[in-house]
Design goal:
With 248 residues, this protein is α+β, with helices and mostly antiparallel strands. The chain has four helices and 15 strands. The chain has three domains: 94 residues, 2-Layer Sandwich (wza like fold), CATH 3.30.1950.10; 69 residues, Outer membrane lipoprotein wza fold like (Roll); 73 residues, Outer membrane lipoprotein wza domain like (Outer membrane lipoprotein wza fold like, Roll). The radius of gyration is 29 Å and the shape is rod-shaped.
Length: 248
């Protein structure tokens, strides 16, 4: 039992130490405490230039430094200005904003989103952006350190580190018009038939006929060719399906 308690105590000490080695970044909110100098306690947010402003010493660049390194930098500034002989400074992060990702493309709310301990997974960030739009693809592109990686949303969890750009591309679509309940563009699902495509458009209207369905598709030369469509024909990207009015 004593060993377990000791292990827990050591782990509790190690967690803050590990956190203090992480680098500060633009947008991070921090609290700076100077021992026995309560008037110098400062709550600040790291500016776009990577700086914070402190009483007496003015601006100090902290972006890219760990919490310990930042405390040392502030301490040295007090010493150089001859304001304090041996200042004891601590820096604690109160809000992490530097760990952000950009979400672009076919989502409800494109933009920049912060990461934290509970939302560092790709799926969580996509959800925060309102989810993938109806015409969005199930595979997204994650750009990290200039390298692109395709990630399937239905695959294994994908952890983000911060600084990535997530691009949700539009899925291949088909178009349906004429005597259907909801004309427009719809996503092409795997092995989708003309019958399923019509169902995606709300079905045939009372004036339409399933026997009068046309399918327009580009041939190998890129020229659009229109043919009669059978309900079991497979749908391809960029197909145009037209349901005509019944003859009687």
């Amino acid at each position: 039992m004593k060993r377990i308690v000791a292990a827990i105590f050591i782990l509790a000490l190690a967690v803050p130490a590990l956190a203090q080695t992480e680098k500060l970044g633009v947008g991070d909110a921090i609290r700076i405490t100077v021992h026995q100098q309560p008037d110098l306690t400062t709550d600040a947010r790291i500016s776009e230039r990577g700086m914070i402003a402190m009483p007496l010493i003015g601006e100090v660049k902290l972006a890219g430094l760990s919490q310990i390194e930042a405390a040392n930098a502030i301490s040295e500034s007090f010493k150089k200005g001859q304001y304090l002989k041996n200042p004891q400074v601590t820096v604690a992060v109160t809000t992490v904003r530097s760990k952000q990702v950009s979400v672009l493309g076919a989502v409800a709310r494109p933009g920049r989103y912060p990461l934290d301990d509970t939302s560092s997974q790709l799926a969580d960030v996509i959800a925060a952006a309102g989810g993938i739009s109806p015409t969005g693809a199930d595979t997204v592109t994650v750009i990290r350190d200039g390298k692109e990686q395709k990630v399937a949303m239905l695959g294994k969890p994908f952890a983000l580190k911060g600084g990535e750009t997530i691009h949700v591309e539009k899925a291949p679509v088909f178009y349906i018009y004429g005597e259907v309940m909801r004309s427009g563009a719809y996503r092409v699902e795997p092995n989708m038939t003309v019958m399923q495509a019509i169902a995606a458009g709300g079905g045939i209207s009372p004036r339409g006929s399933e026997k009068r369905v046309k399918l327009r598709r580009a041939d190998s030369s890129g020229k659009a060719v229109e043919n009669d469509a059978k309900l079991r024909d497979l749908v391809k990207p960029d197909d145009v399906i037209y349901v005509k009015e019944a003859l009687f």
